[in-house]
Design a protein that fits this description.
The chain is mostly beta strands. Helix content is 13%, strand content 40%. The longest helix has 11 residues, at 35-45.
Length: 283
C-alpha cells in the first residue's frame, strides 16, 4: 500500500523524485486581450462569477488510474468545503486511506502493520501547501479580493491549441501558472509546487484538465491528469459523479477519534467524521 498512499495522496499524485524541468518559453503575449479580460472570459466559460460564489461545498466521486497503484481504477471520493477544507479518501485492496485538512491542520490516516489506523499530522510544508490551494473555485476568480496577483506571460501551444499562460502570485509570494484555452477560455493546465514525500524537497506538479461537463450550470473537468514535471508517466483521475453544495459537516475534516490508537497527534477531537457509507449516499 505504500506507493498508493504516498504517491496518490500527496496532492501531486506522483511524488517520485525527478530533476527540475525547464518550462518552455511562452511567445509574446497576444495584446488583443488584457489579463483582466482573459480572467473575466474564463469565469464566464466556467459558469459565471455569481454561480461559483454560490458554491460552498462540492463532492467528487471517481477512480484513479495510475501505474503506481496496486490495482487498476482505485475508487476515490473528494469532499471540498470553503474556504480550504478538504477530505480525500480512496480504497485499494479493501484498505482505506484518508487525507483531511480543516483549514488549519491536516491528518494522514492509513492502515498500519497491526491493523489499526495510523494517524499522522501534516508536516509544516503540507499545511502551507494545503492552505494556499483555492479548493473550490481556483486562483483566478475574485483573485484581487484574495490577495492574488495575476499577470499575462504570453501565449503557448498545448496539444495544438493556443493558450494564454498566466502567472499567478499568491499572498505568500509563491508562484503558480494557469493556462487558459484561447478559444473556449476554459482551464487547460495548472502547475504548482508540492512536497516530495521521498526527499522532503518541493517539486513542480503539472495538472491538466480535459473532458468538461456541465454540472448545474458549472463547467467541470471530468478527466484530470497529474504528475511531476519531467516524469515519464502521468496519473489520471476520472470523475464519475459531482455533487454541488451537499450538506457537509465540519467534523468530516477534523482528526477522527480512533479507539485504542494514540498516534503522533493528540486524540480527543470531538465528533468523528462519517464513515464511508455516508459518501455512498452521494447523489
Amino acid at each position: 500500500m505504500k506507493p498508493i498512499m504516498s504517491l496518490l495522496l500527496a496532492g501531486s499524485v506522483s511524488a517520485i523524485a525527478v530533476a527540475w524541468a525547464q518550462m518552455p518559453a511562452a511567445d509574446h503575449a497576444d495584446q488583443s486581450l488584457t489579463v483582466d479580460e482573459i480572467v473575466a472570459k474564463n469565469a464566464a466559460a466556467r459558469g459565471g462569477d455569481d454561480a461559483w460564489r454560490k458554491v460552498q461545498a462540492m463532492m467528487w466521486a471517481g477512480h484513479v488510474d495510475s501505474a503506481n497503484a496496486p490495482t487498476p481504477s482505485v475508487p476515490f471520493v473528494l469532499a471540498l468545503k470553503r474556504p480550504s477544507s478538504t477530505r480525500f479518501e480512496l480504497t485499494a485492496m479493501n484498505q482505506h486511506v484518508l487525507r483531511m485538512f480543516d483549514g488549519k491542520a491536516g491528518w494522514k490516516i492509513r492502515p498500519s502493520s497491526d491493523g489499526m489506523p495510523d494517524v499522522q499530522a501534516y508536516s509544516p510544508s503540507e499545511v502551507r501547501y494545503a492552505s494556499e490551494e483555492q479548493v473550490i473555485d481556483g486562483p483566478l476568480l475574485d483573485h484581487a479580493a484574495k490577495g492574488i496577483a495575476v499577470s499575462l506571460e504570453g501565449n503557448e501551444m498545448i496539444d495544438d491549441r493556443k493558450t494564454y499562460r498566466l502567472l499567478v502570485t499568491l499572498p505568500s509570494g509563491a508562484h503558480r501558472h494557469v493556462w487558459v484555452d484561447a478559444q473556449s477560455f476554459l482551464d487547460v493546465k495548472y502547475d504548482r509546487e508540492a512536497p516530495n514525500l521521498l526527499t522532503g524537497k518541493p517539486v513542480t506538479v503539472e495538472v491538466s484538465y480535459r473532458d468538461y461537463h456541465d454540472v448545474d450550470g458549472l463547467k467541470l473537468p471530468y478527466t484530470i491528469e497529474s504528475g511531476v514535471v519531467g516524469a515519464p508517466k502521468k496519473d489520471k483521475l476520472v470523475i464519475d459523479r459531482v455533487s454541488i453544495n451537499p450538506p457537509l459537516n465540519d467534523n468530516m475534516f477534523v482528526k477522527p477519534v480512533i479507539a485504542g490508537r494514540r498516534g503522533s497527534v493528540t486524540v480527543g477531537v470531538e465528533g468523528a467524521p462519517p464513515t464511508r457509507s455516508a459518501f455512498r449516499q452521494m447523489p
